[in-house]
Amino acid sequence: MNTLLRSARPQSDELRGYRVLVVEDDYFVAVDLCATLRACGATVLGPAPSITVARSIAREEPPDCALLDVNLHGDFVFQLAEELQARGIHTIFTTGYDPEFIPPQLRHTSCLQKPVETNALVRSIRTERPRDVPA
After folding, report:
1. Which of 6, 16, 18, 115 makes an SS bond possible with 41, Cβ 3.0 to 4.6 Å?
2. pLDDT confidence of 63, banded at 50, 70, 90?
3. Strand partners, 113
4. Domain boundaries, the chain
């Protein structure tokens, strides 16, 4: 399913200083999402098309926030989400699934429905201030 963001890419610095890991297996969605984040001033890590690649990137360059597509070619990202959250990394699910699909222990996690709306994306990322980003 090719789902792109639902609004024009902004040109701002709302996410300046944020390191955002993008975990997405759809090439076109990943490219659009990364371009939108960069246009908002974020440093983009990835995109990671698999859980293995996402873990590797997160180990080498710890993100402030991770955007996780729920289903990566049949592999669900729930264990990865728990690992990242245990490390204090803010996680956001991006999905076409109903939010009830998220396991109960992760329902506190932000969840954005595809197609993702840019303003909601920025708000969700900024919900939890990273340690080193000035207010």
Report:
1. 16
2. very high
3. 95
4. 22-126
Overall CATH class of domain 22-126: alpha beta
Start-to-end CA distance of the chain, whole Å, equals: 37
As given in the structure block, the two tokens for residue 108 are: 């506190």
Looking at residue 79, the DSSP 8-state letter turns out to be H
Mean pLDDT, residues 18-46: 96
User: Degrees (nearest 5) of the Cα angle 113, 116, 120?
Assistant: 95
Determine the Cα–Cα distance for residues 82 and 46; give it in Å rounded to an integer: 19
Please tell me the total number of residues recorded for the chain in this structure: 135
Tell me if residue 11 falls in helix, strand or coil: coil
CB 113 within 8 A of CB 95: yes
Mean local confidence (pLDDT), 6-31:
85
DSSP string covering 107-130, please?
Answer: TTSEEEESSPPHHHHHHHHHTS--
Q: Which are the contacts of 15, defined by CB distance < 8 A and separation ≥ 6? A: 37, 40, 41, 42, 122, 125, 126
Strand partners, 101: none
Over residues 115-129, the pLDDT tens digits come to 999 999 999 999 865
